[in-house]
Specification:
The complex is a heterodimer. By secondary structure, chain A is of the alpha/beta class. Chain A contains seven helices and 15 strands. Chain B is α/β, with parallel strands linked by helices. The chains are: A alpha/beta, B alpha/beta.
Chain lengths: ~325, ~375
Amino acid sequence: MTVEESFRRLQNREGRADFEVRWPTDFGALEPGLTSVLRVKNEARSLPWVLPPLFRAVQHVVVVDNQSDDGTPEVARAVADQAGASERLTVTEYPFDVSRCGAEHLGTPEDSVHNLAYFYNWSFAHVQTAYSMKWDGDMVLTAEGVETYADLAWQLENVEAVVAMPRHPLFVESDRVAYLDVYMINVEEYVFPMGDDYRFVKAYEWELRMVPQGIRRRRLPQGLCVELKYLDSNEFDHWAGIDAFGATARTMRKLREWEVFHALRDGRHDEIDGVVRIEAPPEFDHVITYVTQKWLPRQQRPITVPVDQRPAQKPPVASGSGGGRA
Amino acid sequence: MLERPPDEAVREDALTEGDLSVAATPEPADTARQIVFVAGSGRSGTSLMSGILKNMGLHVPEPEVAPDKTNPKGFGEPKWVVGFHEMLLKRVHVNPADARPGAWFDAGRACIQEANRSRLAEWLDPQFETAESLVIKDPRISWFLGLWRVAAVRVGASTATIVMLRPPAEVVGSGNAYYGERPGDPSGGRLEDINRLAGWTNIMLFTERATRGSSRSFVRYHDLLNDWTSTVVRVGEELGLADVTNAGTGQMQEVHRFVDPELHRVRTTWDELSVPTALRDLAEATWQQLDLLAEPGGDTPEVHAKLDVLRREYGALYAEAEALAWSSVEAAGPAYVEATSRAAAAEAEAAYADASGPRKAYLRSRRVAGRAKRRLRGGG
């Protein structure tokens, strides 16, 4: 097989040859290891929390910036430099408007540079290791999560498998106080082999990654990752509107998030069930450090309250696996 | 509650050097709590290392496994840990000296199960009531280092690993001398030699990978026997073990009494083993690289890169051997199921014989229920 034959080319309807996708076809021919891919827009605030644990857990990180105006690429490079991991970071730019989740996405053809699936394929085509890990610019690994992923990176060397993980929404009020939603179960597949069988395609509300039938699957335990939601910012910018949430199992999670976010922002945290207030003790510089390094690792399991252990008449409970969207 | 500022204000609240420092704050831990894992292939001096650390004042959780003729000076192994590892290995169908590269993924299944994480952390936490520095040694621990590190995070302890090294031919020879041949082996011991050597290669290549980037030291078995003082001081400094670097004369005397150079009884060479050339060359190359890691300052990216290549070559070699022997694998499937069913039935019979009256009644009722369930399912 020639070098070119080991890649599949995906062209776009806009004819932008400089943004064609060159997707590796042979999983077995790639270097062992795990590369995390972050598609980000204005995540400068979160990256100093997100990147350092990632560098401890995986071999390489690809940051694909999509039209940020808050210095996201520069922050990514600065954080990598400070972590001594500059050579393990790739920063690149995707300059196109990408359709927002929901109806706008549904109306965008898959082979358009504006489609989420095309954007994902282009982003993940930068991966040069056998495994890729989808990651968001607001997801922070806990100390336990770092250990778990660092092991996965080499345990996967001689097998082909897909790995899922639950994540916990953490609503950050200030550098001392945050709230963890312990009613939310949000399990998504994050780790995939590269190769022809694992490309992204278009689904209803967002993109979907193809997986061969019968592939081995593994689900990681709770307490490995929090998803930051800042109460002083608009977390729902990338949705067309609350109507776009719809009422499917996949989008019910967003309703819960929306409810919790607005209740907390309005100072009504005691009116919402399943939300735990966490205050960082003075010896910790920030509540995010406290939660990820100490509070969550030492929390009684399960962290998410099982549905049958919740009081009756509670707000709608989001659950399900796959296809989540930050 | 903070008021939501306008978007522009959020953007202007750009990252400063100070913010970056916050995020880079070292992981806080109850630093007084410390665990030293002693890992490596069996018959490589792991018991010796554990015993030395114990004599230096680190605590081996009790009760310990009792000495026997294979290890007259004691194992330095907590009984609970050995039982726990054995149970996990059995559940994931992995052998302690498993030669399959894919077995690491299988063992990883036990490492990510919440029940195992919780159980280990619950056992570990009260061990620090006895001492703040623990030694955990078991040749099986390589399979579960990730699980231990997670438990350490949960109980606020730091961790370090000592990996014991011994030439592979000696390890195979020592295994043959103390554990003997597999019953019914028609190859006159060749099967054991090959399987033990493949197991050594797999365990050492992946133990190195599993500990890379963490606090670790590599120790040659024969260095410990020749002059334990210089080796132990190096390890103490590399891992920051105050008990070791500040050892008193009484403790040194104890270690001198404990370390017996006569323990180095097996000195098998390649000439005495009948193994395929490809495997021997790969094992020898692995040993040469691991040996470099035991030198002061030898834990370098160059060595890691060579070990990465060797690990990959081993995976390819094993996959080829597996393909070659696939007919045997398929034929062994039914025999394996039959053998494990027989073993489970024998175990159940033994448990029944030892059970109390009420327990026997309970077991009888379970058998009846099980039979009924199978009939309902149409299983006869």
